[in-house]
From TrEMBL:
Zn(2+) 1 binds at residues 98, 100, 112, 122. It comes from Artemisia annua. GO terms for cellular component: extracellular matrix. Ca(2+) 2 binds at residue 88. The active site is at residue 149. GO terms for molecular function: metalloendopeptidase activity; zinc ion binding. Ca(2+) 1 binds at residue 127. This is Metallopeptidase, catalytic domain-containing protein. Its cofactor is Zn(2+); Ca(2+). Residues 35-193 form the Peptidase metallopeptidase domain. Binds 2 Zn(2+) ions per subunit. Can bind about 5 Ca(2+) ions per subunit.
Length: 194
């Protein structure tokens, strides 16, 4: 039986809150962070940059995940820039204790992203990642996790719909590299795009 690994997804001001789950507001199957944080009106073209330690082979799945959210939302566009300091979204690999929410090595937390407008996304460098195509036994599909975490960067919480990208966990050997109608409905409701 494939082990389930839980995404760690935090709102910056709730990092130390042990009752994090109580701070999400459910709407339909999708949810938002408490207070519905979102990118400001008119800021739909978000820039992103990768940390110096980000391997080139991991860039295409992230770019593909951004393309999926751009298409699914019909609102956001994403542009890569070189300067991580001034970019809206800052993406890097980290290990163990790294200044915000610690990773724990292989298994457990795969990544964490912060709600708008913090823009920070960290992947656990110690995980056994798969770059596909398709499922790989005993590995975590990197694009699936990137797609999920970008949803958090845009303001979505976890979905109650098991097939959604924004479901709270993913099993090794599973691929969720396409947004579901629940994911798309969530982002459209959050940004008033219906």
């Amino acid at each position: 039986m494939a082990s389930r690994v839980t995404f760690v997804c935090v709102l910056f001001c709730l990092i130390l809150c042990p009752a994090f789950g109580k701070h999400l507001k459910a709407v339909s199957h999708f949810s938002f962070f408490r207070g519905n944080p979102r990118w400001p009106v008119g800021q739909s073209d978000l820039t992103y940059a990768f940390g110096q330690n980000f391997p080139d082979s991991f860039v295409p799945p992230v770019v593909s995940a951004f393309d999926e959210w751009a298409s699914g939302s019909g609102y956001f566009t994403f542009s890569r820039v070189a300067d991580i300091v001034t970019s809206d979204l800052k993406i890097s690999f980290q290990r163990m204790s790294h200044g915000d929410r610690d990773f724990n090595g292989t298994g457990g937390a795969l990544a964490h992203a912060f709600a708008p407008t913090n823009g920070t996304l960290h992947f656990d460098a110690d995980e056994n990642w798969s770059l596909g195509p398709g499922p790989v036994a005993n590995a975590i599909d990197f694009k699936s996790v990137a797609l999920h975490e970008i949803g958090h960067l845009l303001g979505l919480g976890h979905s109650q719909f098991r097939d959604a990208v924004m479901w709270e966990s993913i099993s090794r050997g599973t691929v969720k590299d396409k947004l579901t109608s629940d994911d798309i409905q969530g982002i459209k409701v959050l940004y008033g795009l219906n």
